[in-house]
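Hypothesis: this fold can be encoded by more than one sequence.
Test: take the structure tokens below, design a sequence, compare later.
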């Protein structure tokens, strides 16, 4: 399966390597670095070399490159690499080059437990935290003095059960279950404002702090909205197929219960619009005028709005006036950044002014585009609603909460 793992920083240096089945020279990463130099924004996740397959992900400015010797389902390896990064974030709160370097010992211990002879073994956070204690200052000092490690001498209680994602004997004074329904809107809007393409990538993140061994059932008002779903292993798939309800014994703590996809454009409401006008005349100054406003938000406020305008190469500079937020123009990358923040419907954000054009440039074929970022709280743009959460197997009454968030995914407007 996976023979080696290389972790590479943004400068192209391998700063951590781990081998399971055989030692592979780090020179194999040259194929990956070559692909990265050729197209840094769109690196192929699978690179075939004469003797190996390189399967990679990029997160937090760090590249994780797994080396396999034989053909293997690439999504299997990609999912495992994401699970590795999620585990590092769970242990160390982030996964950057500096944090990995500070925690080399714990990271090697984690990789030893997560993969056995190249095959995934323990990837659940609950099990790993029983096997390898998360680092803290007192434990680090004690280990330095005594020469001990963070590795437990006792096998986790859930490792040999049929519910490996949950440890036994969990107790809380306050029993709580929180669900975050998060939807990301991917869309392409043409010059006239018509939707060329729109879909929703959604997921439900949970924070479960319940005592004992609770059995939960989560039902939705409109479960037929889902086009494509993937579940955490705790979900009983046959029950979902038969009744369209999520029945599960949850892991303890934070986890992703379900990821889903909605591709029906009739369901996808576009929650924001941008009125744009860029007039350019050859050899003269041009004019830019942008106005941003909410649309189909059911009265919710649009927050954290950021606009990125990918300007044509012939634009030298911009002199603009914004009635809200701050802007800056990078003359090298030709990107105009406008940080708006919250949209006030009584006074819509507007930016306008002049743009300088290089003399002698061809302005006939200019196709600038706008990338939009936004967040809307307490709104699931698909209309998805949680109906109820029931708990069986325990006698206490937990506190339950559901939060809805809509974000921009790859949201592009063509000018």
């Amino acid at each position: 399966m996976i023979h080696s793992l290389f972790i590479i920083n943004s400068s192209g240096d391998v700063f951590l390597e781990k081998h399971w089945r055989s030692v592979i020279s780090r020179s194999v990463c040259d194929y990956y670095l070559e692909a990265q130099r050729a197209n840094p924004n769109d690196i192929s996740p699978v690179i075939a070399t004469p003797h190996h397959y390189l399967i990679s992900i990029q997160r937090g400015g760090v590249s994780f490159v797994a080396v396999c010797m034989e053909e293997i389902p690439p999504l299997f390896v990609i999912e495992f690499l994401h699970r590795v990064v999620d585990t590092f974030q769970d242990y160390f709160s982030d996964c950057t080059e500096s944090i990995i370097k500070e925690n080399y010992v714990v990271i090697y211990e984690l990789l030893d437990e997560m993969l056995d002879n190249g095959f995934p073994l323990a990837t659940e956070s609950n099990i790993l935290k029983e096997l390898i204690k998360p680092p803290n200052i007192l434990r680090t000092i004690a280990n330095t003095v005594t020469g001990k490690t963070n590795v437990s001498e006792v096998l986790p209680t859930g490792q040999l059960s049929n519910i490996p994602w949950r440890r036994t004997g969990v107790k809380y004074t306050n029993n709580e279950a929180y669900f975050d329904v998060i939807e990301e809107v991917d869309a392409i809007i043409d010059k006239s404002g018509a939707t060329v393409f729109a879909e929703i990538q959604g997921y439900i993140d949970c924070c479960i702090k319940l005592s004992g061994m609770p059995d939960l059932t989560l039902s939705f008002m409109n479960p037929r909205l889902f086009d494509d779903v993937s579940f955490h292993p705790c979900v009983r798939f046959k029950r979902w197929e038969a009744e369209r309800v999520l029945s599960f014994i949850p892991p303890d703590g934070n986890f992703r219960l379900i990821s889903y996809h909605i591709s029906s454009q009739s369901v996808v409401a576009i929650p924001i619009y941008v009125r744009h006008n860029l007039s350019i005349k050859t050899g003269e100054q041009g004019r830019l005028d942008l106005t941003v406003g909410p649309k189909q938000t059911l009265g919710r406020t649009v927050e954290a709005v950021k606009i990125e305008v990918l300007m044509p190469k012939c634009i030298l500079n911009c002199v603009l006036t914004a009635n809200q937020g701050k802007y800056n123009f990078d003359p090298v990358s030709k990107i105009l950044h406008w940080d708006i923040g919250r949209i006030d419907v009584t006074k819509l954000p507007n930016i306008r002014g002049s743009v300088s054009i290089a003399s002698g440039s061809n302005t006939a074929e200019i196709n600038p585009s706008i990338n939009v970022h936004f967040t809307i709280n307490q709104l699931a743009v698909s209309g998805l609603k949680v109906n109820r959460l029931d708990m069986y197997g325990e006698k206490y009454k937990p506190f339950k909460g559901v939060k809805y968030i809509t974000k921009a995914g790859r949201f592009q407007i063509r000018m």
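The helical segments are 29-38, 74-92, 97-102, 104-114, 125-131, 137-146, 237-243. The chain has a mean pLDDT of 86.
Hypothesis status: open.
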